[in-house]
Automatic annotation (TrEMBL):
Its EC number is 3.1.3.15. The keyword Oxidoreductase does not apply. It holds the Pfam family PHP. Residues 5-220 form the PHP domain. PANTHER family: HISTIDINOL PHOSPHATASE-RELATED (PTHR21039), HISTIDINOL-PHOSPHATASE (PTHR21039:SF0). InterPro entries: Histidinol_P_phosphatase_HisJ, PHP_dom, Pol/histidinol_Pase-like. GO terms for molecular function: histidinol-phosphatase activity. GO terms for biological process: L-histidine biosynthetic process. One of its GO terms (cellular component) is cytoplasm. This is Histidinol-phosphatase. It comes from Lasiosphaeria miniovina.
Amino acid sequence: MAFTMHSHSGQFCPGHAKDQLEDIVQHAIRIGYKTMGLTEHMPRTELSDLYPEELESDPHASLAELAPRHSSYLVEAQRLQKKYADQIHILIGIEGEWIRPAYGDIVKAHTEPACIDYFLGSVHHTAGVPIDFDKVHYARARDAAGGSEELLYEKYYDEQLEMLRTLKPRVVAHFDLIRLLSDEPARPLQAWAGGRVWDKVVRNLEFVASYGGWLECNTSALRKGLDEPYPARPIAEEWLRAGGKFTFSDDSHGIAQVATNYARGLDYLESLGVKEVWTLERAPHPGTSGEVKAALTKKSVPIAEFRASLRLE
C-alpha cells in the first residue's frame, strides 16, 4: 500500500512547484498510491518571511494572496477527497511553518478546521533566514546564527525543539533539512562542535519519541543531490534506538516528483532494519461529521506490501 504523507502542487504552491492538484492526485492513483497526504504550505504573515521568488514583483500582493489561496486549497482538497474516495484515501493536512515563536499560535489556528487531519512540523528558516533556498541565503543564516556552521546547526536544532515543544506535530518533516546546503552535508555530527550538535539532535529525537510523533523518511533529499534521505543514517539509527516510527514521503512538488527515488528510500529503510512504515486512516472518509474532525487510526504498512503496490515506469 504505497503512500506519501507530504506533497505540494503548483496550484497552491506557485513559484517552486508545478501542476494542478487534481492532476497530481490522478497520477498518484495511476502509479499505485493508496493513501495521499495533501500538505500545502500554510500562509506566512510577514513580508520578511517571503521567499525571494515572492518578492520579485509586488511583495505586498504576494503576501496578500497567501491566505485566500490557502482557503481555496482547503475547498479543493475536500472536493478531491470526495471525488476520488473509491480510488485513493486522501488525508488533508498542511505543512506548518515555524519561523519564530509567534508562529506557534498561527500554526495552531490553521489546524483547527474540521477538514484538517494532521500537519507537518517543519523548520525552513533559522535565525529568520531560509536555509534551503540557495547558498546565498544559507550563508546569511549562518552569519545570523553567529558566523559558523557549527553555530547554525546548533541554532537550527534549538529552534526545532521550540517548534516540537510548542506544537508536538504528529509528523516531523525533513528532520535534518539543515544539511541540504551545508558545505559538508555528510559530516559526522557526533564529535563535531565538541558533541554539542549531536547532543541537540538526540535531545530532539527523544522528545519526539516521548509524545509518539513520527519522523518521515523523506526521499526529496535524494533528488536534491544528497546521498541519503532525510534523516541521515546516524540520526535514523538513533531514532530507531529511541523506539521511533517512520512514515514515508516524496515531498513532491509536481507530477514529475511523485514517488521519485522511492525504491532507493525503501532500500535505505530496509538497510536500517526497518520492516514497516506508518500512515493514517480517517473515519469517515470522505468528509467529516459536521464540524467534528475525522477519527484517525494509525496504520502499519509492511515495506514489502508498499513495494508491491507501486507501478513505477
